[in-house]
Amino acid sequence: SDETFILTALHGDGDRKTALITLNRPKQLNALNDGLMDQLGEALLRFDADPAVGCIVITGSEKAFAAGADIGVLAQHDFISAYTSDLITRNWEHIRRVRKPVIGAVAGFALGGGCELAMMCDVVLAADTAKFGQPEIKLGIIPGAGGTQRLPRAIGKAKAMDLVLSGRMMGAEEAERAGLVSRIVPADKLLDEALALGELVCALGNASVIAAKECVNRAYESTLSEGLMTERRLFHALFGTPDQKEGMDAFLAKRKPNFAR
Ligand code: HXC
């Protein structure tokens, strides 16, 4: 169908803009169907490839970031159809391929696939109304887009087990204490704060931003020695960029840096 499930816009005053992606199936609390995930994946890859974009923000509505995979669709599947169609998860790898920072701005429900989508973002800002959970167990299934893997890495085994086994929700305060979100902001300031963070990132040197993200992500995919070596290589490599000269010249001259696009 040609239905649109997301809205996109560019924000900011600088050379590089923050791309805002708003999940937009409000009546279904942004339940994630294939159409929405296809459009989200396409938008992410397009913005990642666009030199005029420095950072991406994903948000939902006031009531829901996303209430999970579309249960109406899930209910129609059996094992063979789920397995052979790579149900729901087939287009979820796109977000992992994005090299620019992705900020998740979460208000209301982030449940099931919605919580998993939030965890795929590099930074999660939570409105005080945010509620996170992996309620799949209550439907007779388990998380299918990384919930059982990213949650323990983010908040530890004890709390991850608590959430995944019970299906209960946790509020913004608990999520911040546990380390799932970087900070809590008032709901009516959520988008402003996310776009302000985006603008800060957009003003930085693109190569150093991409290197920073790459290195932090390596921490989850490698031994400490390998991760430290990746960091050291990229640290040295950045001394070959004009941004390193500009950043340090500007500091020493007590002026603002003007990083190249
Ligand atoms: C389809 C959904 C939905 C979902 C909500 N809706 N969540 N439709 N899939 N995941 C629909 C409702 O059916 C309802 O439609 C409308 O959105 C509003 O929801 P209500 O339930 O009336 O709102 P409320 O009483 O405020 O309760 C909110 C809620 C509840 C607590 C978030 O909707 C809920 O429990 N939703 C399901 C959450 C869930 O189990 N998510 C995990 C899904 S499995 P109508 O037409 O009645 O107005 C999953 C697997 C991921 O995510 C696998 C890999 C991606």
TrEMBL record:
Xref: SUPFAM superfamilies: ClpP/crotonase (SSF52096)
What biological-process terms (Gene Ontology) are attached? fatty acid beta-oxidation
Q: Which keywords does this Swiss-Prot/TrEMBL entry list?
A: Fatty acid metabolism, Lipid metabolism, Lyase
Membrane-spanning residues where?
A: none
Q: Which family does it belong to?
A: Belongs to the enoyl-CoA hydratase/isomerase family.
Q: Which PANTHER family match?
A: ENOYL-COA HYDRATASE, MITOCHONDRIAL (PTHR11941:SF54), ENOYL-COA HYDRATASE-RELATED (PTHR11941)
What protein am I looking at? enoyl-CoA hydratase
Originating species: Rubrivivax albus
